[in-house]
Design brief:
The structure holds two protein chains of two kinds. Chain A is an alpha/beta fold. Chain A contains 15 helices and nine strands. Helix content of chain B is 43%, strand content 13%. Classes of the chains: A alpha/beta, B alpha/beta.
Chain lengths: 317, 374
């Protein structure tokens, strides 16, 4: 029998500041809805815990289920700009954390030389004026009062091991050390959302730091709600029919099953064309906004567009 | 159901739950158990659904964990999993199977394994003897020997240009290093420093057939998969049979026996039939297209016996070839004298394979390592 876990001291008892009007999962769900984001119980719980326990939230799921949207909405909730770090292979400290503005430093030294007083040059050029803040440093130094910064580390699976290890270090205590200036520590830990598309497995050590949630495609009624919430101008009947059709497409084993983003794009496209209802002609003309592979087009056409439309209309009721 | 009525002590429940999760193979260490208690504290759960979600968010690492988590949750708390959480995915109960090591004369597809080689060449060292011997004809001792030799094989993909910058003679000017260098010469820039692109090995993805017809080779090849995964380089391993199973995580343990036991538990379709086409399709859909196959070296270890439609296999192999840097097909039967790729699957796949090699012996696996390294 293993001993009961001793409370890890370094993790502290810090409780993250919640956005206005949020006290529990239910109120978070409400506030999210008011900001046009519909979260189910699982996601809402994951978000609440991430905010309250001040822990990064690792989100995975099919493309287009709204992973990035989670971070945008949270930034909205806290009334701040979203700080976004798009990962790619070879991303390093200069692009993720900070860099000195070397050109300005040089100019400054030359200017001091011209004035004949270089005694303060060194202290001058290594001041914060010459520091270029990249996303991670912005997120750490940006919190003012009860306003938390929201950091999105997007597609972390695209970065490489070196960067992941570094990220782990930053997320461990939300601090960054710049040799010339000292250590910056976040007054209030930023909200951190990390997304991954699972092109490779994120390292276990990083996963261990995070809370984890897998976002599923929403079921029919919820997706209809999302369309109506996001696109209030779209006719209700059209919203239901488009959603029904997209849900049917997801069962067709396509190369790239359409996500919620595609449902929204498509409903908007059809609505822009003046449609109040799904029909085969318009479906045919706008199929490209949902399906991005020629093979998928062939497969869907092979199923018979009119059958698909008929079934979608029946299901939409 | 209210938790207050249940006499629910979060700390006690968390420790018990954690222990059960560990038994079920979920990474529920003390830190996570502690975090689970914290989560329950801040949630003030009103229902078991809250407890369910808190635990799932804290303990699970990947979607593959959900089925095990759900089962443990239900047995620990005696309540069903909340409705919204039931995954469409079928939760298969893993069957533990010890790999039998025989020549597989009861193979499902009716093809015969190559005849055992009975001549033992006494003059050479054991290594020399084993080098070219067919895996299907190994004795248990020889197998142990081969295992050690396999651990020396270093599978690493061909190099590609990386986007990570390293110091170089020419390339982009690196201001930081240039200026730091200038400090040494009294602030005068005497030398410009540059960065260029480094190189890094491509990812290697191994897809190993574990169906009945491959039984004689599966054990040896799985050892090879293990050696490859724990070695250097980025290697992913899957088994194919009636279904596709990712075993990279299971194989990561340094101890080969533990790793293989974990992999055997994860794979539920040992020595079943083969559906190469639909398995490769699943790989393409779920992993390959998203990025795992892009620019990678893909190695399929299979005899090409396929119960599915050859057209599907051809189509999916073509798709795989377009995604990958290179596709290598390793067929243990290729070494058999007079072998021709007549199995319908093999014939269908061959046009989309860049390298077609044998995989019946240590020597042929060494050859594979060379081919993969480009």
């Amino acid at each position: 029998m293993k001993p009961a876990p001793a409370p890890a001291r370094t993790q502290g008892r810090h409780r993250g500041i919640l956005p206005d009007g949020v006290t529990d999962v239910a109120s978070l769900t409400e506030v999210l809805r008011a900001h046009q984001y519909l979260a189910d119980d699982g996601l809402a719980t994951a978000m609440f815990l991430s905010l309250r326990l001040a822990r990064p939230l690792l989100l995975e799921g099919e493309a287009g289920v709204g992973k990035t949207e989670v971070a945008k909405t949270l930034a909205d909730l806290y009334g701040t700009e979203l700080i976004r770090l798009q990962c790619y292979e070879g991303i390093d400290v200069a692009q993720a954390v900070y860099e000195w503005s070397y050109a300005r430093q040089l100019l400054h030294i030359r200017a001091l030389e011209a004035m004949g007083d270089v005694s303060h040059a060194e202290a001058d050029v290594y001041s914060e004026d010459f520091l270029v803040r990249r996303p991670l440093l912005q997120a750490i130094t940006g919190s003012v009062g009860d306003r938390r910064q929201v950091l999105l580390v997007d597609e972390v699976d695209r970065s490489d091991d070196e960067f992941e290890a570094f990220l782990l270090e930053v997320l461990a205590d939300y601090s960054v050390t710049i040799p010339e200036l000292g250590t910056f520590k976040a007054a209030e830990p930023p909200v951190v959302i990390i997304t991954s598309n699972r092109t490779r497995e994120v390292h276990d050590a990083l996963k261990r730091r995070c809370l984890y949630h897998w976002i599923e495609h929403p079921e029919f009624e919820r997706e209809v709600q999302i369309v109506k919430l996001r696109l209030p101008d779209v006719h209700e009947r059209l919203a239901r029919q488009v959603t029904a059709l997209v849900q049917a497409l997801r069962d067709l084993e396509l190369y790239k099953p359409p996500g919620v983003a595609e449902t929204l794009d498509w409903a908007e496209a059809l609505s822009t064309l003046g449609a109040a209802e799904l029909d085969v002609r318009r479906l045919d003309a706008t199929l490209g906004s949902v399906l991005k592979y020629r093979e998928d087009h062939d497969r869907v056409r092979g199923q018979g567009l009119d059958t698909l439309v008929r079934e979608a209309i029946t299901r939409a009721g | 159901m209210h938790l207050a009525e249940l006499d629910f002590d979060p700390a006690r429940a968390a420790v018990r739950f954690g222990r059960l999760l560990r038994t079920a193979g979920i990474d529920a260490d003390a830190t996570r158990v502690h975090r689970f208690v914290e989560a329950l504290e801040v949630l003030g759960p009103r229902s078991m659904a809250d407890v369910y979600w808190a635990g799932r968010v804290v303990f699970c690492n990947a979607p593959d964990d959900f089925a095990r988590y759900d089962a443990t949750f239900a047995s620990c708390f005696g309540v069903p999993v909340p409705l919204g959480a039931l995954m469409a995915a079928q939760a298969a109960t893993p069957i533990e199977i010890t790999l039998a090591f025989d020549s597989g004369d009861d193979s499902a597809d009716g093809e015969t394994a190559p005849a055992p080689d009975n001549t033992v060449v006494v003059r050479f060292s054991a290594v020399e003897t084993l080098r070219d011997k067919d895996f299907a004809a190994y004795s248990t001792e020889e197998f142990e020997e081969a295992r050690r030799l396999m651990a020396d094989l270093r599978l690493a993909g061909a190099l590609r240009r990386s986007r990570r910058a390293i110091p170089a003679r020419k390339g982009r000017l690196h201001m930081g290093r240039t200026l730091r260098g200038a400090m040494r010469s009294g602030g005068e820039v005497t030398r410009l420093r540059f960065t260029g692109r480094g190189e890094r090995p491509r990812r290697v993805v191994l897809l190993c057939d574990v169906s009945g017809s491959m039984e004689a080779y599966a054990r040896a090849l799985l050892r090879f998969l293990h050696a490859a995964v724990v070695g250097h380089g980025r290697v992913e391993a899957f088994t194919i049979g009636t279904r596709l199973t990712r075993i990279t995580r299971e194989l990561r343990s340094r101890d080969p026996d533990a790793a293989l036991a974990a992999a055997s538990r994860a794979v539920v379709d040992w020595s079943g039939g083969t559906r190469l086409g639909s398995n490769i399709k699943e790989f393409n859909d779920v992993w390959g297209q998203r990025g795992m196959a892009r620019g990678s070296v893909i190695v399929v270890l299979s005899d090409g016996w396929d119960r599915g439609d050859p057209a599907v296999l051809a189509h999916e192999m073509h798709r795989l070839q377009r995604l990958a840097h290179r596709v290598v097909w390793v067929n243990p039967l290729k070494a058999t004298p007079g072998y021709a790729p007549l199995a319908s699957g093999m014939a269908a796949a061959l046009p989309f394979v860049d390298e077609f090699i044998e995989g019946h012996s240590l020597a042929s696996l060494q050859e594979l390592v060379k081919v993969v390294a480009g």
